[in-house]
Amino acid sequence: MALDGLAEKISNLIDATGPYEASPTVCVAVSGGGDSMALALLLDRWARARGGRLIALTVDHQLRTDSAVEARQVGDWLSVQGICHHILKWHDPRATSALQENARAARYALMENWCRDNGILHLFLAHNAEDQAETFLMRLDKGSGPDGLSAMSAVTERRHCRLVRPLLSVSGRELRAFLGDQGQDWVEDPSNQNDRFERIRWRRMMTEQGLSSDGICRAAERYGQARGVLENQAAHLSARTVAVHPAGFIRIDCQGFLSAPGELGGRVLARALMAVGGAVYPPRRHKLERLMAVISGRENQIRTLGGCQIECRDDKILIARELRALPRPLPVRPGTSLTWDRRFHLNIIGGAQDAVLAPLLQPLGEQGERFIKALNPELDGVEIPRIVRLALPSLVDEKGVLSVPHLNYCRVGRGGNGLSGGAQIGDVAFRSLNSLSGSGYFVAK
Asked: 3-211 belongs to which homologous superfamily?
């Protein structure tokens, strides 16, 4: 494809992932590889044409001895193009069996937090057609359904910004030809030849078998369209049947829920489990199907899945946080604002900054429940299931429980004694990092 033709194609693909601000400032992840270097140059043209600006981010994982040199080289190349560049360092690299997964999680966290701190709404990623095809094959091999086989979404809404992948229909060959026309060099990552990694093995297999990414990407696109329809229908079902309580549990109306097709019900149930349990990934399909069978049979059993306890009672499905793998006690100071257990957003107020002992933020638990019931016997009248109460965020000092907002409990403070003073949990909201409706699936045209 001619240079001008590729630039126009990429510009149209970027526009399709909008809308964008009138003069957009956007970020792009640049590893220095051919795909990300090409995207940076093309995206810079797109932003400048709209009176906007591009900022490039490179994450130095410090996993290879020359990673810092490569990151600086990327900065030098982009500087010549007039593109602002920042290097973000991963300070906790650990060689584990899940090295690529951990590095990927760290990379996204660093870049998304940078976007949050600098008011950037759009973070561009250079995944291309070959990446999309490899993802499809990896998930096909694992027996994935429509969600997995739709592979990567062109737009993913994250907590702090949008992840935008405009190159999913563009081959790496086209992008490297563009760099050649520009006289722009790039970095070849040696890990791209390492058969230790599953993705590299699939990449090699595609090459050896002469498989084209075009047909595989078209299949992924069709699955993506089907996924979009299913997600829309599941969102409507969720709105009709799911009730969310501020204390972090969910009740689902059995009659409306079970009258829907099983595929939709499974989607709604999976999202509810993720919202309450805070898990990063949905439950395995076979486990979810077993739970759906129990619910469909109206069996009055208590089951656990995805960090949740599930119980059918009075024509309702109760989903509560399981009392397992809850956060450990966390020392907190006044002025602290945080997300706790991936579910509650809260802040700590009152108390003394110079207190000798910081109060601990922790699940209420049985001991905490006994403490506040001794002071407030009417706690048994609170319309919150006991399992939910035990998993609520509470603030505790050396004398006992200081604050549990969901139970309208706050112990009188003891300011001036050099201990934790009158610290308490201030505003608290059930704001799970996992949305009930999911982030949606976007197929760029």
From this structure: HUPs (3.40.50.620)
